[in-house]
Amino acid sequence: MNDTPVIYLDNNATTMVAPEVLEEMLPYFNRWYGNPSSMHSFGGMVGRRIREARERLASLLGASEEEIIFTSCGTESDSTAIYAAIRSYPEKKHIITSRVEHPAVKNLCDYLAKNGYRVTTVGVDKSGNLDLDFLYDNLTPDTAIVSLMWANNETGVIFPVEEIAEKTAAAGIVLHTDAVQAVGKIPIDMQTNRIDMLSLSGHKLHAPKGIGALYVRKGTKFSPFLIGGHQEKGRRGGTENTASIIGLGKAAELAAAKMSEENTRVRELRDKLERELTQRIPNCFVNGKDAPRLPNTASIAFEFVEGEAILLLMNEHGICASSGSACTSGSLEPSHVLRAMGVPFTAAHGTIRYSLSVYNTEAEIDVVIEHMPGIIERLRQLSPFWKSGACMAS
Ligand code: PLP
């Protein structure tokens, strides 16, 4: 790493631990390190701080404390929810999900599809909006669970999960939402909807990595995923990750306080970034532009260039973001989300996701706006597609 100052626009990947969160956590590593289950007051004190964290998180969600189960991450929350439903209704063998879920849900559903379940995946249109008619037509008495994300991690597109909950509740079907990207960015009030289970993850809202939570509505049939001790009222065994739980509680409190800034100042910065880049750079567009979206996410396609190459040049200027391809497989396949939206291959490959947070400034956005046109121009001069004039056809 050189010492170029970092402009961090990758907050959907992970966020900085807020200084106030870190400060609250630190004493729980080596000063107040007792086990909250212990009989002595040294441990009991930690137990009280966990109760406070649970209250703070419940308050962010409009939930009651007993509806919150702390887990290790968003992925564990998603697995817990889906397994809870299929174990609670063993006779039901049908699952509904969408084509654009995070691997935490998608890969579990793919696994279940190979292991005795019929999985229906609902598609999206070119803006990323869910095909609601198809979803509702496929609800059956055999459906054990519908699992749909609240907001998409790549495009920020928001699904109408509260509206969908009316239909699933009327049909007596469990609805789980992966709200890992939504919590802390848009208002959520579980008192005014009928969603049964909701997953969240600390590291997406300025708490540490390795802590998550699952909301389970009172009265929802439940079966634990991690079977062990009596922690979390027997719903999730394992000694509590005390410092991180306390950190998540503080992060929830901060998120509630900063919600309006996220939806005004951060949204304006995101909109400025989109507006300026699409005006200054030819053959460039915003994925999901016409759909309801998170205030912090811009998924921008730069046609006829490679996302990974763009990221490398951005990195030279200290700008951190993500691409729309999955290079982990070595195949540079465009993301399943962009493919499901029908984004052309040449645009999906050149998609960059910029995800902001309340810690970003307008000066940082201006630096990105200044550098991006040159980066894209430089790469396009090397692109055989661009040079051959294929761009003219798009
Ligand atoms: N669901 C969504 C929508 C996500 O964006 C992520 C993380 O990127 C996860 C689930 C997984 O969360 P975790 O990293 O806490 O397991």
- How would you write the strand order of the largest sheet? 2-8-7-6-5-3-4
**CATH class bucket of the largest domain:** Alpha Beta
Spans of at least 5 consecutive residues with low confidence:
none
Helix content: 40-55%
Portion in beta strands: 15-25%
Enumerate how many helices there are, as a single number.
14
Q: Helix-strand pattern, N to C?
A: EHHHEHEHEHEHEEEHEEHEEEEHHEHHH
Instruction: Look at the structure and name the CATH superfamily of the largest domain.
Output: Type I PLP-dependent aspartate aminotransferase-like (Major domain)
In total, the number of strands is 15
Main beta sheet strand tally, sense and closure: 7 strands, mixed
Shape: globular
Supply Rg: 22 Å
Count of discrete structural domains: 2
How would you characterize the overall build of this protein?
- This protein has 394 residues and is an alpha/beta fold.
- Helix 7 (161-170) links the parallel strand 5 (143-149) and strand 6 (174-178).
- It is globular, with a radius of gyration of 22 Å.
- It has 14 helices and 15 strands.
- The chain is 41% helix and 15% strand.
- Residues 73-75, 102, 104, 149, 153, 178, 180-181, 201, 212 line the site of pyridoxal-5'-phosphate.
